[in-house]
Amino acid sequence: MNVIVSIFSEISNLGATITMPIIFTILGLIVGMKFWPAFKSGLLYGIGFAGLWLVLDYFMASLADAAAGISANLGLSLDVIDAGWMLGSAMAFGSTLLPLAIVGILGVNILLILVGFVKTLNIDLWNYWIMITGGVLVQKFTGSYWIGLAAIIVSSVVVTKLADVFAKPAWDGGFIPEGITLPHQDTIAMAPVYFGVNWVIGKIPKVRDWNFNTNKLSSKLGVFGEPAVMGLLLGLLLGICAGFSVPEILSMGMVCAATMVLMPKVCSVLMEGLAPIAEATQEMASRKLKGREIRIGMDAAIGVGNPDVLLLSILIIPIMLVLSAAMPHNRMLPFADLSSMTLYILWAVIACRGNMFRALIAGTIGAALYLLCGTYVANVYTDAAAALAPDMIPEGTMLVSSISAGNPIYTVLLFLCKILGLGA
């Protein structure tokens, strides 16, 4: 088990930008590609992924500053602090559940592919921590190692199945190549909610016909509807709301404009690397597995290059901050994970098929649920963090949680343990 922990720790230390190209090259060879095409696919994926996170980090840093400014202007003071996904990651990597969880997630995944229950092979090892953190919370609540491990395995099955179920809309919308899925727990867990909101809006006369997106705005507003100009204007507005100085407002505008233009370009490089691997995997499955389909599970970050996703991620930040102040029963102040809302609202845009009116409604409801679920798990989350990653708890903080921890699967797991009387 120590060997497994050491290997996984090394993978974690290298980061996805280095490890995923290696994994992709090996996977390409396994599914029958020659070395150089497999290596080129892995290299292009790595280049695209590095570019994606360069742009995202640039974008997220500015969004974090804007969120802090808006929060200060609203005078928000809540007793649960959003400490960010990094704390959850540290909890997972520090847990005794880690070695068996890695073996269990991957082993059960392969078994379920062989029996035909799922089609996705989740090779996004870097993000296994999200499922493991859920098990950490269950272990802390119940006092049982084995119930915590069972919670991780159940979560992995649910997440993989959700990735399969919702793959086609993501393909049809051009968010990811066919054959790729997104079993990323803290994003895919909200997909049923977003699809449900879209379905309800589709049943409301007249309202169901309301629609706008970046393409329609571009055709109707001319230059003001171009993604770069919209990014500039929204960034300027966000900077004003944050109370920035004039240079800072202008900088915020340029960051948003640059992101709207650069993100689709770096994602196109990433997709160029993904496509050959996905095609070769399907050809191998057709030849050797009697036509059975195999999909490759990846990080949700690969789907955020769509301008509508970036547009919604800018709009949702002030909305979420207002919700945190106005919504009954919420105690969590969104902060560290606000800059990652690009990921958390991805499925709102996919579910609503680019209809930005519907995506804004769905994203707002999703933001409210992230806050409420983050509040619900806060006590257990804080206890687990104090035991496994005390140095990462902000000084003077009573309770910690995160938007990532507000994914509904954590809440469902702890609620089930509670009603079943499994508390320690």
Describe this entry's structure for a reader:
It is globular and about 60 Å long. The chain has helices at residues 2-14, 16-30, 35-74, 85-93, 98-114, 128-142, 145-165, 167-172, 185-188, 191-201, 214-221, 227-241, 246-288, 307-326, 341-344, 346-351, 356-376, 378-388, 408-419; strands at residues 80-82, 120-122, 180-181, 295-297, 332-333, 399-401. A 3-stranded parallel beta sheet has the order 5-1-6. Strands 2-4-3 form a 3-stranded parallel beta sheet. α3 runs parallel beside α14 (307-326) and α6 (128-142) runs antiparallel to α7. The longest helix is centred in the middle third of the chain and has 43 residues, at 246-288. It is built from 19 helices and 6 strands. The chain has 424 residues and is mainly α.
SSE arrangement:
Layout: H1 2-14, H2 16-30, H3 35-74, E1 80-82, H4 85-93, H5 98-114, E2 120-122, H6 128-142, H7 145-165, H8 167-172, E3 180-181, H9 185-188, H10 191-201, H11 214-221, H12 227-241, H13 246-288, E4 295-297, H14 307-326, E5 332-333, H15 341-344, H16 346-351, H17 356-376, H18 378-388, E6 399-401, H19 408-419
Parallel strand pairs: 1-5, 1-6, 2-4, 3-4
What percentage of the residues does DSSP assign to strands (E)? under 5%
Task: Please mark out the parts with pLDDT under 50 across 5 or more consecutive residues, or reply none.
Answer: none
Q: Shape, please?
A: globular
Element pattern in H and E:
HHHEHHEHHHEHHHHHEHEHHHHEH
Terminal residue distance: 27 Å
Q: Count of helical segments? A: 19
Structural class: mainly alpha
Helix % is: 55-70%
Q: The biggest beta sheet, please?
A: 3 strands, parallel
Spatial ordering of strands, largest sheet: 5-1-6
Using the CA coordinates, give the radius of gyration.
21 Å
If you average the pLDDT, what whole number results? Answer: 86
Topology, number of strands: 6
